[in-house]
Amino acid sequence: MSGAAHLAVTVLLAVAVVVALICCLALLLMKDFYERLHYMAPVSTVATFCVLAAVTVQEGWGQATLKTIVIALVLFFMNATLAHVTARADRVHKLGHWTADPKEDIPGLPKHVDSERKR
């Protein structure tokens, strides 16, 4: 492997580690459960694809790269599903249901929509 390829692999893996560490720090600093939930996404997208690129540069288009592609795609598509399911499970745990109550005050909902919902 050439010096440039070695440097590329090192930089890609360093970016993946830095993204994971920043996300871990953000998980500790965020106060709300739903805010923390958002900081799990970069690990399964940015960091995973950096690792995929590093494996591709290191190994070429072989069996290791194909397996890494499959793993990266599974992580990428499962991230959104797991985040949604986790948020819904937390809402059910706290409220006993997952649907919005017309009288419920939902932060960020425009006032005209909120007034129509309360009728």
List the keywords:
119 residues; mainly alpha; 0% strand
Describe this structure in words.
With 119 residues, the chain is mainly α. It has one domain. Helix content is 77%, strand content 0%. It is built from 5 helices and no strands. It has helices at residues 3-29, 33-38, 41-59, 63-95, 111-117. It is elongated, with a radius of gyration of 20 Å. The mean pLDDT is 83.
Q: Nutshell version of this structure?
A:
With 119 residues, the protein is mostly helical. 77% of the residues lie in helices and 0% in strands.
Largest sheet, in brief, is:
none
The total beta strand count reads 0
Rg, please? 20 Å
Poorly predicted spans: none
Structural class: mainly alpha
Tally of discrete structural domains: 1
Number of helices: 5
Average of the residue pLDDT scores = 83
- In percent terms, what proportion of residues is strand? under 5%
Shape: elongated
The helix-strand sequence is HHHHH
> Helicity level, as a percent range?
over 70%
Distance between the termini: 68 Å
How are the elements arranged and paired?
Blueprint (H helix, E strand, L loop, with lengths): L2 H27 L3 H6 L2 H19 L3 H33 L15 H7 L2
Helix pairs in contact: 1-3, 3-4
